[in-house]
């Protein structure tokens, strides 16, 4: 039945122009065209096959990743791809690799933390991949607490060098009697990187200046062996088959390793030839700049991972049929379910399925738009920093930290929900969902544990509340705090379900909830004589206030997007419905907070649920077209359940036949382990 599109009927139902939506999703016609061309290039090249990944032993898996990365680089250079095209190519190859850390963290760290002179030395080497780098910050004992890092970089004025040392201590202070203080986790470190940006405490003349970044060569450029004083290796298998095990997360100890003074990254602060420590006129927090950059990238990436899972679950929900009647006989479910030609109900028509799936579909779009906005915010703060305007740095930190936390938590949970939405078949590796989850879930931890990051947002919120009335007007994402008096008093004016489609009404509801939760936390905090003690005691409430603030940002950026000119038949109308699903499903999920802060009444909450159901019905005929708008190839999706033509069952059957376990009819091990067992039972049962 090759060539039949089993989802054609669904595609014909679409009430909007899919090609226009594809451009909205991509961000621009240019971005769409690049992504479309590069994704097809990757999909059509058998060298990028990835369906065997869950079955490969680690060593083979890793070697395969090295092969793909080298081949990708060959294509990039031979085809003279631009930076944008090259980064799209790596994205569509869709396999975590050392290159993610080289391009995603090492190069940005060089750009952000090095002086112009240092950049002119290191960047050309990194751009040509003549050196490969990673970002080595986390230690075995310290991840979240960056200030607590224990690796030291001690300046030796005799030789004009830093001595980098990660001590192995015998300590009686801590729970363990022996504490090994080494770097632990960096991707690309274990087996590949020739260089690392290592974070260490800077010591000059016996004085500790806190954590700074240093460029350290790890391996010989001749034979790839670790340089003297360096012990390095992989930290071992991680969660899931295939998944993130293509990455060589590493362990590193540095035993009095010497590097030249000019390998301290000196944009933020410098050490002179005489060993004098000098701080530039920029905030110390810029040492953390690479994390701000990557968190912003991770937010954009969340929409990719979630949209992938949602595309799989939506297509499969339209293909999968359960209950109803096959031959026009008695029905097992009520008559209002739409029936297909077979008389069976598509599971996507169950309201419970829609109630689980459509908010995730809406979140994928919401994260796409907030990711676009965050990229703008990051570019803006970078331009300001270049002219010594540091005023928006705290907001940029709070937004990147908070949105990274919000979007990765929702995406990881959403992928798992999509797996369940696909029933039993979702549990098969060929659904693509187990591996997607296993690859994605560490995003809740890396680049800052999601709770730790929300606590940073909470600090920012509490600082803002404490400044209300001081004359300092809150701006940007926190501007609503400037209207806090109104927001504390106001009441929701919704009277009919459709009133929940009014953007200013919705915005005020989310602002009032966020403002009231923050103010309530601040009031409770003020009861403590020691603010830090109060912060620790109230941290669970503070995290909830931070989530409310971050959700407000996502909702407001989606609403802002809808204010723009969006061309294409029906595109804007559909996006309005999708946006409505996003905020009303949040309102429903967090109803308790909206009610407890007394902004809305139970009746208004019920009207919100009515409107939400109405929007599900509006989106239902457009669901397949909405996921087609992501423009994902079958290669990128890596899922039989999500394949474009919906021809799921024969493909599942064929894939099962190809499983190595089915290479022989009688399994290996039969003669050793099954036959004797069966024989013995045969004797005892006298059969
Ligand atoms: C498969 C990959 C898939 C997707 C990725 C897609 C795209 C990404 C592209 C490339 C990346 C490639 C792959 C990514 C995969 C994995 C890589 C993982 C890498 C890592 O994990 S690197 C290690 C990251 N570590 C952390 O994030 C540690 C978390 N901890 C911290 O950030 C800080 O220590 C903390 C907790 C924020 C602050 O601690 P503390 O309370 O002790 O405060 P400080 O004294 O340190 O700070 C005080 C002051 O500074 C402000 N501040 C803190 N951080 C920042 C910052 N980053 N920027 C600006 N300002 C900051 C803080 O608010 C305080 O301000 P105040 O004094 O209150 O005004
Ligand atoms: C796949 C992967 C890739 C990584 N890649 C890199 C890399 O390339 N380079 C690198 O340097 N690092 C890397 N990391 C390390 C990563 O950045 C850290 O694991 C992360 O920052 C979390 O720190 P932690 O492991 O110390 O967690 P911990 O801080 O030990 O967290 C443990 C628990 O304690 C809680 N907790 C901690 N502090 C607080 C607090 N103050 N208040 C309340 N609760 C708290 C957390 O919420 C969590 O539940 C990677 C990690 C993973 C999983």
UniProtKB/TrEMBL annotation:
Its cofactor is FAD. The keyword Lipid metabolism applies. Belongs to the acyl-CoA oxidase family. GO terms for molecular function: acyl-CoA oxidase activity; FAD binding; fatty acid binding. It is found in: Peroxisome. FAD binds at residues 138, 187. Its main location: other. It holds the Pfam family ACOX. This is Acyl-coenzyme A oxidase. Residues 17-132 form the Acyl-coenzyme A oxidase N-terminal domain.
